[in-house]
Design a protein that fits this description.
This protein has helices at 4-9, 11-21, 28-66, 72-104, 142-148, 154-160, 170-190, 204-209, 235-239, 297-315, 361-366, 391-401, and strands at 124-129, 152-153, 167-168, 194-196, 201-202, 222-223, 228-230, 246-248, 254-263, 282-292, 319-323, 335-343, 348-357, 369-371, 379-380, 382-390, 409-410, 424-425. It is built from twelve helices and 18 strands. The chain is elongated and about 100 Å long. The structure holds one RNA strand of 93 nucleotides.
RNA sequence: GGAGAGAUGGCCGAGUGGACGAAGGCGCACGCCUGGAGAGCGUGUGGGCGGCUUAGCUCCGUCCCGUGGGUUCGAAUCCCACUCUCUCCGCCA
């Protein structure tokens, strides 16, 4: 959520941001908010004056009664005022609710350094690492490799659950587990993150706190009987660790890393990535989340991205870093780098991590603040998060990058200790 | 799932329908005291919204005692619903 003061003072900046983002655009909402906001304040001034009168009268009544005198007249007068207050309070509540509703749908303001453009075609490649592997044969996509090795079983995954669920067997299951440990170890032991294992179901407030509700409920699995939702990413529970809290400035930055399964209905992606394990309803992910001081959030985005990149470097997988354009930027994000890994079999780059700075957008929704060390009022922290990395896609990338002409797959050296010394999948 | 208890300021803890947001204590901050520290003494110690002024960090108002409603001229205090925590029983990885 944006600061109402920003919308008041700089409505044109907000409108421009909405236009730059393209698709969610409805600039008239800003005017609607401004109107409701001034209505709200006008009523507030009036009703607070009435409340003041009520408080004064209350003291008078108490004093009169103490003296044993009759306060009937004042009471009678106050009865009317109270009635009026009740009406106006309800009005304020209603106006406020409508204002908040509109505000919840306004996306974050992109950073100035974010390229302006309508969609992913305007994204900017920031850097690349490594080179695409060369083959003396036609490299195959991971689903062919996986089925041939009998480690990816799509048919049975579908039988057990539905399409876009995959049964991992043998070396694939082992690699999945190994990658989780491998990544967690890097981030906890070398990058200074604290490991957490959060609830995999979260309530509605938690989803609202990170900006996934009310807008994107269609993509979630709801347990309606219990009013809980399967998390779409660890960002949801981990960011909400500090919902409603005031941290000490000295506690910043707070850095967490979590492995969790993630669940997405992938509504509206029919026909996209239908083969393989790129787009699944259930997938594993290691996620980094940071709570930082507002002054350093963009630096923290760079280091967060570097932390994610480190995993790919250790695994020796070719990738590039892309700065998303305004049109491709997530709703809550002010700046975002995607790490795209080279899928040797498919011959294209695929997103494997998304590292975002949300400035105070999530913190305002989730009410996460810090107390400045120099004193003064609490301020909103800035939040960031990034995958480090999506596990399934990493498996796919390894299978495709490290395949041999006979169908076997070389286990990356760095991962071998995590797979019981296995060097080759055959 | 059944039965019961409870939710007050950073923490502990009192609280009557009407007294700067609330006794007391702890903690914390500043000051005094001290050669220094401690003790002691003194002062202070939350947040949201809004107004004025256009920035007072020591202005004014309003709201906040789990959350949301209700009763009342007035509610932390009475009523209702919900949420959470704790104890016991049952079931269970």
């Amino acid at each position: 959520m944006l600061d109402i003061k920003l919308i008041r003072d700089e409505p044109d900046i907000v409108k421009q941001a909405i236009l730059d983002r393209g698709k969610d655009a409805d600039v008239t909402d800003v005017d609607g908010i401004l109107e409701l906001d001034s209505r709200r304040r006008a009523i507030l001034v009036e009703v607070e004056e009435l409340k003041r009168q009520r408080n004064v009268a209350g003291e008078e009544i108490a004093a009169l009664k103490k003296k044993g005198e009759d306060a009937g007249q004042i009471v009678e007068r106050m009865r009317e005022i109270s009635e009026r207050i009740k009406e106006m309070d309800a009005e304020v509540r209603e106006v406020e609710a409508r204002r908040t509703e509109l505000m919840m749908d306004i996306p974050n303001i992109p950073q100035e350094s974010v390229p302006v453009g309508p969609d992913e075609s305007a994204n900017e490649e920031v850097r690349t690492w490594g080179k695409p592997p060369r083959f003396t044969f036609e490299p195959r996509p991971h689903w062919e490799i996986g089925e041939a090795l009998d480690i990816l079983d799509f048919k049975r995954g579908a039988k057990i659950a539905s399409a876009r669920f995959t049964l991992l067997k043998g070396a694939a299951a082992l690699m999945e587990r190994a990658l989780i440990n491998f990544m967690l170890d890097i981030h906890t032991k070398e990058h200074g993150y604290t490991e957490v294992f959060p609830p995999i179901l979260a309530n509605q407030e938690s989803f609202e706190g990170v900006g996934q509700l009310p807008k994107f409920g269609d993509d979630m699995y709801w347990c309606r009987d219990d009013n809980l939702i399967l998390i779409t990413t660890a960002e949801v529970p981990v960011t909400n660790i500090h919902r409603g809290e005031v941290l000490a400035e000295e506690e910043l930055p707070r850095k967490y890393v979590a492995y969790t399964p993630c669940f997405r209905r992938e509504a509206g992606t029919y026909g996209k990535d239908v083969r393989g394990i790129i787009r699944q309803h259930q997938f594993n992910k290691v996620e980094m989340v940071k709570f930082v001081h507002p002054d350093v959030s963009l630096d923290e985005l760079e280091s967060l991205t570097a932390n994610a990149e480190e995993v790919l470097k250790r695994l020796g997988i070719h990738y590039r870093v892309v700065c998303l354009s305004t049109g491709d930027l997530g709703f809550a994000s002010s700046k975002c780098y995607d790490l795209e890994v080279w899928m040797a079999g498919a011959g294209e780059f695929k997103e494997i991590s998304s590292c975002s700075c949300f400035t105070d957008f999530q913190a305002r929704r989730a009410n996460i603040r810090f107390k400045p060390a120099s004193g003064g009022k609490p301020r909103f922290v800035h939040t960031l998060n990034g995958s480090g990395l999506a596990i399934g896609r990493t498996v796919a990338a390894i299978l495709e990058s490290n395949q041999l002409d006979d169908g076997r797959v070389v286990v990356p050296t760095a991962l071998q200790p995590y797979m019981g010394g296995m060097t080759l999948i055959e």
